[in-house]
Structure formats: structure tokens, C-alpha cells
């Protein structure tokens, strides 16, 4: 790339070093390279992927870390940031029904994208619950949808260069809207009277290690994304995505892997 080289052969681009070639490091390296950085990504293990790796024994393959995808758009964005398409590398399959919850009284609830089936199941547990859930969970103006998008746009996708940028009046308003001081279980108890439904639509907080009794109501974004964006498998395991991202990174951008560093 001629324009990147100064007289004397030095690379004119600013240099960025990314420590760790997990999903996070590789996605950051891809984005930095596309922003014009000369990126060096260092990884202490012999293969990229971080916690997303696999063990193969006697022809059987086991995921060591992640096995399902929530918010697939995040993976597509990582590939798109280097001008590629995740679909060129792997096949994603929606898991539907996502799971079946079996309750203490013998009843069960299948989480599925089939709205009619959801209506039948919810209404059999609590009259009027489907409409309230639909209003809360599925509609564009729903709380879970808003929580996800407000959090991504205003917090996750933003840089905060000082404490004042974070503790700003705008963020104070946002935290109020996201109901960060309200407990998730209290919030969901307003939507459902039936304790089975209250559990079914708040236990997902435990995916990230938080009890719904302690988690902020903001976490309703998890139930929203699980239902509306779906839960996905990658044929051959998520490690296939790590491998593809590493390959694309090495072939499309200036990125030096220094594997086996400690
Ligand atoms: C058992 C398990 C199941 C999971 N299931 C799911 C799931 O189903 N779905 C899902 O979305 N998420 C799941 N997760 C979470 C997901 O695996 C992680 O959120 C994700 O892999 C984190 O990526 P990362 O790049 O931030 O960190 P990591 O994957 O931890 O990558 C960090 C990398 O940095 C390297 N490193 C660290 N220090 C140095 C250093 N000093 N020098 C050089 N290299 C360094 C490490 O070797 C590693 O490769 C699961 C996690 C576990 C453990």
C-alpha cells in the first residue's frame, strides 16, 4: 500500500497493538485496521479464538466455550467491518424451539418464534398474558427492544474519553429510562401474575451470572433478543467463526500475529 509508506520505507500509519486474539481482540483489530491503523495482534496461545475453541477426540468435536449465538448481527458486523460476509464462511441455523422449560407442576413452556404457539401456551397459564407480553416484548416500541438499542447506541458503541462524558445529564436520563435502579424480577412481576411466567421471562439473566432478583430491569433486553433475534448454532461449532475471522484478518488487513507469546 504505497500511500501508507513514508520516504525511507517507514509505515506512516499509526500503530495499534491488540492484546489477545479472542473474538473481542480480533473484532477490534479488524475495525482498527479499517480505520487506517497498522495493527499488531498478539496472542499468547498457539491458535486464535480465546475461549471460543474446541477439542477433537476420536472424531468427535466438542465446544470448549461458547456454543450458541445471541445477537448474530454483532458477528455479521465484525466481518462487514473488513468488507466480508460471515455467510461466505459458515452456516448459521436458528434453534427453534430455543428451549423447553419444565415447571414444578408438570406444565411446560417452549420458547419458539411461532407466535400462535406462544399465544396458546401463555394464555393457558395466565389469561391476557400474551397480549401484555407482546406489548412488552415484541412491538417495536417495546421496553426490551428499546433497552437493547439504547444501550448499544449510547453506551456499548460509544467511547468515553473522560468521567464527565460518562456521568453526563444525558446519561443520567438514559439510566433512568433503562430502569437501572429497578430490579428485573419486580419489573416482570408487573407484566405477569403467574410465577412460572415470571421465572420463564427473567431466568435468562443468569446467562451472565446475575440473579433476576438483583439484576436491573434493563436486562429485559436479553429476553427480547432471545425471542426476536433468535438463538443460533453455527454448523461445525462456533470455533469455525473464530477460524474464519482469523483467516480474513490475516488475508485482508495488515495484521501481524505473534502467536505463542507469553
Ligand atoms: C464455558 C463457556 C461457555 C460460553 N458460552 C457462550 C455462548 O454459548 N454464547 C456466547 O455468546 N458466549 C458464551 N461464552 C462467553 C464467550 O466465550 C466470551 O464472551 C468470549 O469468547 C470472550 O471473547 P474475548 O475476546 O473478550 O475474550 P477471550 O476469548 O478470553 O480472549 C482473550 C484472548 O487474550 C489472550 N491473552 C490474554 N492475555 C494475554 C497476554 N498478556 N498476551 C497475549 N495474549 C493474551 C488469551 O489467550 C485469549 O486468547 C461462554 C464462555 C464460556 C467460558
TrEMBL record:
InterPro entries, sorted: FAD/NAD-bd_sf (IPR036188)
Pfam families: NAD_binding_8
Domain of life: Eukaryota
The protein, known as: Amine oxidase domain-containing protein
Source organism (scientific name): Guillardia theta (strain CCMP2712) (Cryptophyte)
Amino acid at each position: 500500500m504505497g500511500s501508507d509508506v513514508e520516504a525511507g520505507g517507514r509505515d506512516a500509519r499509526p500503530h495499534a497493538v491488540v492484546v489477545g486474539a479472542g473474538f473481542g481482540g480480533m473484532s477490534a483489530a479488524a475495525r482498527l485496521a479499517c480505520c487506517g491503523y497498522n495493527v499488531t495482534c498478539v496472542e499468547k496461545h498457539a491458535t486464535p479464538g480465546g475461549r471460543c475453541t474446541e477439542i477433537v477426540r476420536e472424531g468427535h468435536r466438542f465446544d470448549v466455550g461458547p456454543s450458541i449465538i445471541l445477537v448474530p448481527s454483532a458477528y455479521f458486523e465484525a466481518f462487514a467491518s473488513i468488507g466480508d460476509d460471515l455467510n461466505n464462511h459458515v452456516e448459521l441455523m436458528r434453534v427453534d424451539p430455543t428451549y423447553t422449560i419444565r415447571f414444578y407442576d408438570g406444565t411446560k413452556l417452549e420458547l419458539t418464534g411461532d407466535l400462535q404457539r406462544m399465544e396458546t401456551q401463555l394464555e393457558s397459564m395466565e389469561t391476557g398474558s400474551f397480549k401484555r407480553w407482546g406489548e412488552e416484548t415484541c412491538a417495536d416500541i417495546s421496553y426490551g427492544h428499546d433497552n437493547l438499542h439504547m444501550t448499544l447506541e449510547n453506551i456499548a458503541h460509544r467511547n468515553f474519553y473522560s468521567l464527565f462524558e460518562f456521568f453526563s445529564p444525558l446519561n443520567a436520563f438514559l439510566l433512568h429510562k433503562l430502569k437501572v435502579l429497578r430490579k428485573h424480577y419486580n419489573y416482570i412481576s408487573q407484566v405477569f401474575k403467574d410465577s412460572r411466567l415470571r421465572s420463564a421471562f427473567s431466568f435468562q439473566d443468569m446467562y451472565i451470572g446475575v440473579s433476576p432478583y438483583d439484576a436491573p430491569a434493563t436486562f429485559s433486553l436479553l429476553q427480547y433478543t432471545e425471542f426476536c433475534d433468535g438463538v443460533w448454532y453455527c454448523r461445525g461449532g462456533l470455533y469455525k467463526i473464530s477460524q474464519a475471522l482469523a483467516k480474513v484478518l490475516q488475508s485482508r488487513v495488515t495484521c501481524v500475529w505473534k502467536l505463542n507469546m507469553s
